[in-house]
Amino acid sequence: MMRTKKKLNAYGGAAEISTATSTTARENDDGAAEWEMRPGGMLVQKRSGKADDAPPVRNLRLRIAYGALRYEISVSSMATFGEVKKKLTEETGLQGNEQRVVYRGKERENGEYLDICGVKDRSKLILIQDPSSIERRFLEMRRKAKIHTAHRAISHVSIELDKLADQVSSIEKSISNGVKVPELQITTLIEMLMRQAIKLDSISAEGDASPQKILQGKRVQKCVETLDVLKISNARIKPVIVTTKWETFDPPHPPPSTTKWELFD
């Protein structure tokens, strides 16, 4: 918008001077704050005025109350509350979406500037954990504990399967060498494998424990199938009958007696 005004010069004449006023530099008539998008995608309050007129940037020491805990952080006076939350993540371990920051009784948005909201050095902010995040964190802890328990149970089954697999290999080696194995031994081993399969079925596995459970289940299935095949091969092996012939000997004849007896009247 162009404006023109007249001014008397040194010789009494009138000179026209034009001035330009940018409507974009004005604030809204209703006093509402304007917003702008930062390159990182954060929506922040739009600053007005020239950069030359802005006060020098300095760091603020902020006092943070988080329940019974107290923290003190240092941030730029021109930082946003979203940047404050990033600092608090390092201190508390809470992620930005789990935090609620309250200043002067009002929860502040991520894009609001500290200096525009009146935050000064040594100002106190209240940090509150989002109740929904507490529930999510609790559920996540339960899920991790459940996975840990499943890992431990699957590990115990795996150790037992290692022992049973060694017995299967030993039976397989004996049958391949033509040595007949008692059928009861094979049947008992199959029953022991099936017990481990029942244990696996009773384990509730989630996350990365589920593939481990499937892997051990395949091991049981493979051992049982191997024993079924060995059972058939073992039945075809004829038992070796060992017969022992004993040689008999006649007892030796006693030597003739050469004893002379003397008679007395």
UniProtKB/TrEMBL annotation:
<dbReference type="InterPro" id="IPR029071">
    <property type="entry name" value="Ubiquitin-like_domsf"/>
</dbReference>
<protein>
    <submittedName>
        <fullName>BAG family molecular chaperone regulator 2</fullName>
    </submittedName>
</protein>
<dbReference type="InterPro" id="IPR000626">
    <property type="entry name" value="Ubiquitin-like_dom"/>
</dbReference>
<feature type="region of interest" description="Disordered">
    <location>
        <begin position="19"/>
        <end position="40"/>
    </location>
</feature>
<dbReference type="GO" id="GO:0005737">
    <property type="term" value="C:cytoplasm"/>
</dbReference>
<feature type="domain" description="Ubiquitin-like">
    <location>
        <begin position="58"/>
        <end position="128"/>
    </location>
</feature>
<dbReference type="GO" id="GO:0051087">
    <property type="term" value="F:protein-folding chaperone binding"/>
</dbReference>
<dbReference type="InterPro" id="IPR036533">
    <property type="entry name" value="BAG_dom_sf"/>
</dbReference>
<dbReference type="Pfam" id="PF00240">
    <property type="entry name" value="ubiquitin"/>
</dbReference>
<dbReference type="GO" id="GO:0000774">
    <property type="term" value="F:adenyl-nucleotide exchange factor activity"/>
</dbReference>
<keyword id="KW-0143">Chaperone</keyword>
<dbReference type="GO" id="GO:0050821">
    <property type="term" value="P:protein stabilization"/>
</dbReference>
<dbReference type="InterPro" id="IPR003103">
    <property type="entry name" value="BAG_domain"/>
</dbReference>
<dbReference type="Pfam" id="PF02179">
    <property type="entry name" value="BAG"/>
</dbReference>
<dbReference type="InterPro" id="IPR039773">
    <property type="entry name" value="BAG_chaperone_regulator"/>
</dbReference>
